[in-house]
Design goal:
The complex is a heterodimer of chains A (about 950) and B (about 270).
Chain A (H helix, E strand, L loop, with lengths): L8 H10 L18 E9 L18 E8 L1 E4 L2 E4 L3 E7 L5 E2 L19 E12 L9 E13 L7 E7 L2 E12 L2 E8 L7 E9 L13 E5 L7 E4 L12 E2 L10 E8 L7 E6 L14 E6 L7 E2 L1 E6 L14 E7 L5 E2 L40 E3 L5 E3 L9 E8 L7 E8 L13 H6 L3 E8 L10 E10 L6 E5 L9 E6 L7 E2 L5 E15 L4 E9 L11 E6 L10 E6 L7 E7 L5 E2 L9 H6 L7 E9 L6 E10 L7 E11 L2 E14 L6 E5 L5 E2 L2 E2 L4 E6 L5 E2 L7 E9 L4 E8 L12 E7 L10 E6 L11 E7 L6 E2 H5 L2 E2 H6 L9 E8 L6 E10 L7 E8 L2 E6 L1 E4 L5 E5 L9 E6 L13 H4 L5 E10 L4 E11 L5 H10 L1
Parallel strand pairs in A: 49-62, 53-55
Antiparallel strand pairs in A: 1-2, 2-12, 3-4, 5-11, 5-16, 6-15, 7-8, 7-12, 8-9, 8-13, 9-10, 10-11, 13-14, 16-17, 18-20, 19-31, 20-30, 21-29, 21-32, 22-31, 23-24, 25-26, 25-30, 26-27, 27-28, 28-29, 32-33, 34-35, 35-45, 36-42, 36-47, 37-46, 38-39, 38-45, 39-40, 40-41, 41-42, 43-44, 47-48, 49-50, ...
Chain B lengths: L9 H10 L16 E9 L6 E11 L9 E9 L16 H7 L13 E7 L6 E11 L8 E10 L1 E13 L4 E8 L13 E9 L6 E5 L2 E5 L4 E2 L9 E9 L4 E8 L3 H4 L1
Classes of the chains: A mainly beta (about 950), B mainly beta (about 270).
Chain lengths: ~950, ~270
Amino acid sequence: MKRRLVPFGVGAIIAAVLALAVPATPAGAVPAPAFGIAHFSMQALGSGEAGDELFTQAAGHPFALKASVEFANEPAGAYRVPTEEARDVTIDLPPGLLAYPQAVAACRQVEQQCPVDSQVGYFVLHASTLSLFAGSEQGVSSLSLLAPIYNLAPSGSEPAELGLATPLGTIPMQGRLVRTPAGYSLAVSAKGLAQLGVLSIEITLWGAPAETAHDAQRGLTCVGPEANPTSLCTGGGTADGEEARPFLTMPSKCGAPAPTASVWADAWLHPAEYVKAESSLASLGYCDRLPFSPQLSVLPENLAAEQPVGVDVGVGVSSNEAPSLVSAPPLRSVALTLPQGMSINPAAAGGVTACAAAGSEGIDLPSGLGEEGRPLSPSEVGEGEESDPGGEAVLAAGHCPRASTIGQAEARSPLLAEPIAGHVYLAEPLCGSSGQAPCGEGDAADGRLLRFYVELGGRGEQSSHGVVIKLTGAIQVNPANGQLVVVLSEAPQLPLSKLELRLFGGQRALLVNPSQCGPATTNAELQPWGSPYAPEAASSSYYNVAGCSQPQPFQPTLTAGSYSVAAGQFTPFLFDLQRKSGEQTLSGLQLQAPQGLVAVLAGITPCQEAAAGAGACPQSARVGSSAVALGSGTEPLWLDGSVYLTGPYRGAPFGLAIVTSARVGPLDLGQVVIRARLDVNPTTGALTVTSDSLPQILLGVPLHMSELRLDLDRPGFIANPTSCAGQRVLANVSGGGGAGAKMSNPFGLAGCRALGFAPKLSAFTSAAASIRSGASLDLRLSQAAGPGSGQANLARLRIALPRALPTRLTALQSACRAAVFAADPAACPAASLVGIARAATPLISGQLAGPVYLIAHGRGQPPSPTIVLQGQGLRLDLSAGTTIERSGRTAIGFGSLPDLPLRSVELYLPRGPHSVLAPAGKLCSAATAAHTLALPVELAAHNGLVLHRTAAIAVRGCPPAPRHKKRRRRLA
Amino acid sequence: MRFAGRSTGVALTLACLLWTGATSASASATPAPGPSARLHVVFTPDLAGARTTVEMSLSIAAAPGQAPPSLRSLALRLPQGMGVATTTLGEANCEPASLFASGLDGCSANALLGFGTATAVVPAPSGNVVERAELHPLMGPSHENQIEVLFYVQANTPVFAQLVLPAVLAEDAAPYGEQLLTSVPLIEVWPEGPDLALRSIDTTIGPLHLLYHRRVGSKTVYFRPQGVKIPRQCPPGGFPFGAVMSFASGASTSAEYRVACPIATRE
């Protein structure tokens, strides 16, 4: 700590006096009372003639601020001596009580006389000394010193410094910014006071030092006994005519509680054992007089609609500099309602970490309180503080990771000559962490999800001013529409003429421009310190968003297909949908797979509905992976997820749950679950995936989904068709603006010729047929089928019923109308149910089984059977056509069987009142000697192979043929 | 059981009812457009005063470019004096339910009055489906003062179908003696499908190919029933037969045929 010697006439005398100073505590006395502060007071004074009128105008400039500290003392004869010699003294000014060193000339003339215009006040020091004057007792006397206080150019890292010009030298009082429990405030410290037996010190700072009213004390140094401190004076001067500028400004907070100042002091004998005293100033008022006209500016990095954008947000608060006027109150809080449509860019979360509140990667917000909640003494290092070389706690820079930086900050203050630079950091959310509830819409709306820190000063280039200010902000997000309100509250009571936050731009900017062109207006509600008595203010700023197309285009692109082109083989299947930035959002999706692309559901336990809705499906139900690209711009955020098979969903036998964990960087937005129904076309067997409305916004963050990729890659799940006919993957996609897009992707396979086709057909009927009960027919078809079997699936089956088994007219007349069947097969008349069928397929665990209906298709087409196979929620309608051949045979043809692996199909048309067949005569008579009826059959496979065979309908129950008996006799 | 009051010769009536025809080469009477019909009748043997089997053929044709019409009623007009009092056809009665349940096996062979075939058409855009059937006239259930004849039609190819058409006998104006009235139901082949349309009928009424049986003691005796007696007096132009038909479309038509007088009569 430097001392500036003052070569001053009176100083020489005082120097001689003080040089003889001794410790005030007499030796050999009884244990002295403890060190303490006997009295402390601080008051702002008005400019009344008496000079002692209390000043109560909030944000005004007092005539003077007077602080008096009296240390604990004890009698020593007719005089008093301090109980211990004070060492360090720190005065914490009330928050908002400000001194502007920039308003006064700074004394830079080290070891020389400070200029008069740098004087900002004076002090009076009372000390006990060895007696050199008459009337002293016990060798103790008292001495008073009145001397100027100068505004010094800061010698260290502190932002301000005052100097108490004693004859022995200048006692520096460093002014700095501290964090007290009441908030950020200014503190002045005098350290290492000489052991002069200081009893008290009274400091008077002038509100506007250049005012001539202070000329009486200007440049004056006096010394004398306590009873007559100005008995010996020297110096003096007048103001230099400079315009008086306010040096002091009162807090702008009106009403109770009154501003409170604190003083901390320790003693040489007990260093760092601080004692504290407080003094309340007179309550302030007249806040309604405070001018508050802040101005907002919002400047985007670009004007392009729906593009990531960096934004410079500036708030300026102009202030008065005339001593007779009141200053504008400092900004306490601001709520910026960003333009409608401006939203959070999900891509911003990529690669970003969050800054914790504390710790090695924390902002370390200071509180001014110790662990036990008590105020910290100047030497106690609390959260967000560090110890300076002198052992005093000072505000410390935070430790936010570089990856949490989302912008830059800069503040200008009349307190400081240079702006304070800093950063904006993404803060850890107050939800979703371990031990916390997952983030919800309430968290988003209340600003607990998206938070930020502003650190002004701090490390590196920002540390030059010795000022560290840390602010906490929140971004309140409307969960429904994404409207953003940026809230910065409890700013320090420091005059910030300009506060600028520059949020980074680029593709991963935090914000996205509105998608609608036109004025984008930001509205600000600003609250000053002094509110609610002081008026609040509103301001707005706008810019014009450009680059929109009307109507908004919607031309998504589709990529879909199997990884393998081998027919009939297992393969992963890829679906990828993309949209360009600026187009309508993806709001719905329907995907129709090629016919014959099958999903093997056997062995998969679908995810239960409750779990699917919560995105908590078990791994056993996983059938694929997913990836979604979120955010506008060219560098979206990719989130991986899983695709799960679910049970029945919205009327479909199965569903899919696309579950994506929206934990990106520090933000846990929970699970994004896209539900879809998985239908199997009962006629073609084609799979159709129909999504629910795709999520557009999550906790108020518009997702701007630009790509959705589904990879159904569970081994043994998806298999290719056995047909190599050219097909297409179809997709219907709906846009958020109401547009629709139909897309298709070619789908072709190879290797069909290598597939075999060897079905086996057997048929039976009963000899016990009659006109009344009709005749039965039992058809059984079997083949090796299934993915990987090397066999093609049955595509067509045509059989020509023997003339001995004609169709019954009564059955035709009882056929179910096609419209009735289509609406609900169960509504078909009982007489139209002419048989039952069963089928085995490797696609599901159980069998497919169901009734056989005779369906009437209208006037032009004879009724034909339709097999309704059901199992595991699936339904397949295998419909045949009926034709009458020239031979009189009735031919039944299943002309377009789905490309599904059916290992066996059994069709049983029983006898009975609803029998569809009748015996034309005696069946045994019509049959050959082998008791069989010829059944011409045509079988075709999906790979193009066609087989023509004549199967035999075995007539069961015929009497043995006569020649059979003869053979037995011969054998006997 | 024989019907007690069939004095006028049910079998002949039936024969006439069913598919009477005129011996004249052209019997169509109703002018086009609309359906037309042709009737042809043959006596076997064709001798005046002899017992005979009446063979009748009736064919119905649609107007050009139209689907065959569906027959709703048919009145067969018989010549005077060709009653069936002298016949012994229809010794037994047959119930429709028996026919539906078991076909011809459901009734006694003694109820048969003759045999024949019928052809029906099911109009279809892809081409008419022709259904051929066996036709058997049988003595129906006994009713007081009324003769009921059942026409049992059974088709096997390509569709198995059974149809029983009851017919009743009534007096007719000269030159006819009696007429047999038959209502034919609309036969919708399948729901919302076309109606079955009769295209032709060929049948016999008489003992030809019929063999009745009777229990005499412990034995079964087979015999032929006596057929329709041809009157010795032949009207000018021959024995008149007629058919009057109405159709579902509302149209109607008729056909006549005169069987030339037997040679023996002319002698």
